[in-house]
């Protein structure tokens, strides 16, 4: 019980932050605004869940923003073809992310390339491919049913999907053999390998799942904006990493969780939303949000040390 608050401190911080902002801002606590925050967090929240898997196993994926853009472009180009159903376009976008994730995993394991460098190369390659496929122009006139996925025709649809994804991976990490293997690989790769865990397969699987979720998130983003933009999701890799760290993931590996990553993404979007409601200058927004992120991460680390949940 003593460690319980430290384990779930991102959710506690999110709840306290929302309560505080609701008291000082009537606009923030309005139903429409809360719905807007919820469905606009879905794309980065889904990516953060995938990024958490890579971070837990001791790596990092810098390509998620570019892969999301490429996946959205592929899905939108396919859906514009006559007779192609929306479901097939969504599957193609998610499949594109899966392929990119597998390539990242193979480069960082079989190729012996550090994940930072491998995913940096993928970031540039995926963005360039997206621009080439789209002719450096956004893709418009998408099928009307496609708009439901991103929440513009039903805000609760992507919210339920995102919550379901976070819950599924929370259960997977907590109760499955794969979950124990990914934590063991991130905590001590040598010890995990000597214990019989196929560490290379675990690493490739983590990158593959991250790519799959990123591809799907890119399709969700394209649905929400209504266009397939090859320059979309620029900088989202940093947002996803920040969400994971706020959510309790350790960049050293071996620690983190999907619900914490989603809570971290919500904390960031709640802060951005509050700044927009109050008309803060965008530059001051960056300063404020960056400062608060550092404070919350430091406080989270302090809570964990006090509870005996973290040695660092």
Walk me through the structure.
The chain is mostly helical and 312 residues long. It has one domain: ABC transporter involved in vitamin B12 uptake, BtuC, CATH 1.10.3470. Helices cover 72% and strands 0% of the residues. The protein has 14 helices and no strands. It has helices spanning 4-7, 9-24, 31-40, 42-56, 64-79, 86-109, 115-134, 156-175, 177-187, 189-194, 199-225, 236-246, 258-277, 282-307. It is globular. The model has no long low-confidence stretch (mean pLDDT 90).
Based on the model shown, name its key terms.
single chain; 312 residues; mainly alpha; ABC transporter involved in vitamin B12 uptake, BtuC; 14 helices; 72% helix; 0% strand
How are the secondary structure elements laid out?
Blueprint: H1 4-7, H2 9-24, H3 31-40, H4 42-56, H5 64-79, H6 86-109, H7 115-134, H8 156-175, H9 177-187, H10 189-194, H11 199-225, H12 236-246, H13 258-277, H14 282-307
Helix pairs in contact: 2-13, 3-13, 4-8, 4-11, 4-12, 4-13, 5-6, 5-7, 5-11, 6-7, 6-11, 8-9, 9-11, 12-13, 13-14
